[in-house]
Amino acid sequence: MPSTLPETELHNPQTTKTPLDPHLKALENEAIHIFREVAAEFEKPVMLYSVGKDSSVLLHLARKAFYPGRVPFPLLHVNTGWKFSEMIAFRNDIVKKYDLDFIEHINPRGAAENVTPFTHGSALFTDIMKTEGLRQALDAHGFDAAFGGARRDEEASRAKERIYSFRTPDHRWDPRNQRPELWNVYNGMIRKGESVRAFPLSNWTEVDIWRYIQVEDIPLVPLYYAKERPYVERDGMMILAEDPRLELLPGETVKHGSIRFRTLGDFPLTGAIPSQATNLEEVIAELEIATVSERQGRAIDRDQSGSMEKKKREGYF
Amino acid sequence: MTVSAIAQNTGAQNTGVQAAAEATTGSVTTFPAVETARVPRDTRPLRLITCGSVDDGKSTLIGRLLWDTKAVKEDQAATLRRDSGKQNDLGLPDFALLLDGLQAEREQGITIDVAYRYFATDKRSFIVADTPGHEQYTRNMATGASTADLAILLVDARTGLLEQTRRHATIASLMGIKQFVLAVNKFDLVGYDRARFDQISHEFRELALSLGVRQITAIPMSALKGENVVYDGKASMPWYDGQTLVEVLELATVRSAQTVGFRLPVQRVSRPGESFRGYQGTVAGGSVKPGDSVVILPSGMVANVTKIVTFDLVRNAAVAGDAITLVLDRQVDVSRGDMIVSLESQPQTGLAFDAQLVALQSDGIQPGKRYWLKSGSRRQRVSVQPSSLLDLKSGKWNHHTDGLSMNAIGKVHLTFDEQAVFDPYEQNRTTGAFILIDPDTNNTVAGGMITAKRSSLGGIHTEDARVILSLPADLADQLMSTELFATRREEAEIRRVPAGKAIEIFDAIDG
User: Fold this and answer.
1) E strands of B293-362, at which residues?
2) DSSP state of B316
């Protein structure tokens, strides 16, 4: 009995786009394969969605992997309460536009104990609101697999990360106790309470992400593009000065300039760069001559060498 | 890979070896010009593995590749300089720190796992599996080699080939790598002596030939000084006319499985509505187009392809590597773990197969134990019986029916409860590969490669199989005096050997 889905329904309207080059095509195929494998092998997967560029690519690939069906798992946004306001607005639009199941979680300790990046410092704040928040959400829903947008080229400790990253029931990552991964055969067997973080973008680099966004015309939070914005210089970082909760320290003044963000997170912990790149072509051109890595604007990576590895052991991505 | 690409690549890639071969006869070598225009360059990401011990300068080589292709950003370099505290006389940081990301490794000064590195030139991007060199990490090397298209074997120009070089070459070749680069490093420390290079590359060629490897390039280099890695080393080595390492990598080919029949291991069945049923998976071999007749294995049902659906468009063809959704023209029972294959060229289906294994965990592989086997999207129970063990020192297979300990490479018989579907690994690196999972721990305990199907009697299943009997001489004489034997005497080959020799011959066959 032939299927009778009309041809028009099987046609995405955006077919006029440039075909992917072999390099991006290979990366896309690999990511789709991973999405399908995890969705088939695990009982209750979830996709971690941080609203940033990598998450946007991850979501796009998930939609491709399960087309013409819906994305068969919810998106989870672990909100810290200190995200850029533009991120939240963008997030809400995307969820509506693509008909996604969506879960937001904010660690209640944040409000109860008044945990802020200013009072608790970036390390403790991140630990409570992100790492603990993520663990709370995963436990509450009993997810046994979580897709993340981590890439191996981001930071030294991630270079050894598996596609399927095995976690104990208390979400710990033990670099000495990860399963070998050969070919593209993934071992998804786990006991109750254990879980796997799956990283379809493992082999992508920052340039790949941007080129893919360009070719696929993936919508992004406007903060990635340069615009005249108010900012404060603090600890060698340019902090966006929009949120009333940002209190100026003695000697600080709000400046205005054309700035953009290479990564997005909590506004007090995410530094902008001066830039004139107002569209994708310009961002990519700027990136290809950039001599500074993308995570340089992240306060949390610089607490100490090896800090990311410590966070991962505790269950952060 | 097209035939012309093979021809062009061997032409381009054997320059070092030719130089070595001809140097021994004292002739002057002229290198064939590399014409890239005739063959469309393979621009897919190349996956490669680097083998060699810490002492050979492996970290320095990878660091140099990242550094000279601008893959190291300024702030990472600053962290490096801060962490290494000292710089070498070239003003470069200690590259090893760039590569050994985990604190435990920094503390122990060893590389304990496979790390993946990324760099790119304007022609192509590269994924490097950086694996540790010690013997106790053979399993990590096998892991890195499983996805690699090319292996860089690093040797120190002062010491030349070591036992370890043979070990690494053997493992890489076993895992299906066909393209090798011999990086003769620290060449500055032997005074850029051409004769030394010729000697080492000639030695390696002998080794490679014994392994059946034909695509070899040998390159004299100094990773520390950046000579013949990304930039050429003409200033120090005017006699070397061959390619730099990066040039070889740019021209190398990605293995693709398009030469065998169509293979689609089904990952999931997509049923978004009553009207649509599609089978989702990644093409693991050959190609497919609407109208093709296919068979669903292991059930053997036949159907025709009506559509190849992707998010962007309904396609008129798909090739190996493509992640697709396939729609068939009739209701057939297909589920995850089945394989959809071409009618005319099918994989083998059966209950018993022979394979080679690498044991990955400290418990090793126990004879007769039942494991989970996962290949493609299929998981099934299997019992495993070792038959021989590879001696990495000599490259020989020895008779061995006990367990396989961690890092051991052995040949095994696999016996399944239900029909299994495989191609030989030699023909298809996806449908011929599998992992074993220990049901007690859920850990991945082995990686394996199918060599052949066995009949239920333990024989090899081919149309023109031969049986080799080893009999006591008196029994053989009685059998040969029968009438039936006499009528077909010319079809039989007979050798009389001492009993010990017969055992050796059988072990060699098992191995």
Assistant:
1) 293-297, 301-309, 314-315, 318-319, 323-328, 339-342, 348-359
2) S
Span B351-378, pLDDT tens digits: 999 999 999 998 999 998 999 999 999 9
> What is the C-alpha separation between A312 and A158, in angstroms, rounded?
9
The token duo for B84 is 């290494």
Q: What does each C-alpha distance from B323 to B131, B428, B453 come to in angstroms? A: 29, 17, 28
Distance of CA A294 to the CA centre of its chain: 13
- Residue B122 contacts A, CB cutoff 8 Å: no
Tell me the chain B residues in contact with residue A64 when contact means C-beta distances shorter than 8 Å: 310-312
The pairs formed by B380-384 with CB atoms below 8 angstroms and a separation of 24 or more are B380/B337, B380/B416, B380/B417, B380/B418, B380/B420, B381/B416, B381/B417, B381/B418, B382/B414, B382/B415, B382/B416, B382/B417, B382/B420, B382/B436, B383/B414, B383/B415, B384/B357, B384/B412, B384/B413, B384/B414, B384/B436
Task: Provide the residue type at B378 as one letter.
Answer: R
Strands B314-315 and B301-309: antiparallel
Residues forming beta bridges with residue B97, ordered by sequence position: none
Cα B173 to the chain's mean position, in Å? 6
- Residue found by looking up tokens 């306001």 in the block: A85
Do B278 and A68 lie within an 8 Å CB cutoff? yes
The token pair at B260 is 């065998």
pLDDT band at B52 (very low <50, low <70, confident <90, very high): confident
Cα atoms found within 13 Å of the Cα of residue B146, Cβ hemisphere only? 25
- The encoded tokens of residue B414 equal 């696999």
Whether the Cβ atoms of residue B98 and residue B117 lie closer than 8 Å to each other:
no
Q: Does B76 touch chain A (CB under 8 A)?
A: yes
**pLDDT per position as a tens digit, A154-204:** 876 777 788 999 998 888 887 667 789 999 999 999 999 999 999 999 999
pLDDT > 90? residue B348: yes
Give the integer Cα–Cα distance in Å for B297 and B420: 9
Question: In one letter, which amino acid is B383?
Answer: S
Q: Minimum mean pLDDT among A95-99, B12-16, B448-452: which range?
A: B12-16
Share above pLDDT 70 across residues of chain B, in percent, rounded to a whole number: 81
CB-CB neighbors (< 8 A) of A179 in chain B: 443-444
- Cβ contacts of B104 within 8 Å, gap of 6 or more: A175, A176, B112
Residue range B60-99, pLDDT digits in tens: 898 889 888 887 766 666 766 666 655 555 566 677 666 6
Contact A205 B120 (CB under 8 A): yes
Contacts of B217 (CB under 8 A, 6+ apart): B13, B14, B15, B16, B17, B180, B181, B182, B242, B243, B248
Mean pLDDT within B199-215: 90
DSSP, res B408: -
Per-chain mean pLDDT for chain A: 87
B444 contacts in A (CB within 8 Å)? 179-182, 187
Which residues lie below 8 Å from residue B374, measured CB to CB, with a gap of 6+?
Answer: A185, A187, B434, B435, B437
Question: CA B484 → CA A173, B49, B214, B477, distances in Å?
Answer: 68, 56, 46, 13
pLDDT of residue A304: 46
E strand or H helix at B50, and its extent? strand B46-51
| Length reported for chain B | 511
Contact across the interface for B102 and A4, Cβ inside 8 Å:
no
Burial of B502 (0-12, 13-18, 19+ CB in 10 A): middle
What does the pLDDT read at residue B31? Answer: 39
Tokens found for residue A302: 């610089």
Q: Quote the CA–CA distance of A146 and B282 in Å, as a whole number.
A: 22
Q: How many CB atoms lie within 10 A of CB B241?
A: 14
Total residues found in chain A within this entry: 317
**Structure confidence by residue, pLDDT tens digits, B483-500:** 778 777 777 888 888 888
Q: Which of A26, A187, A296 sits opposite B374 (nearest CB)?
A: A187
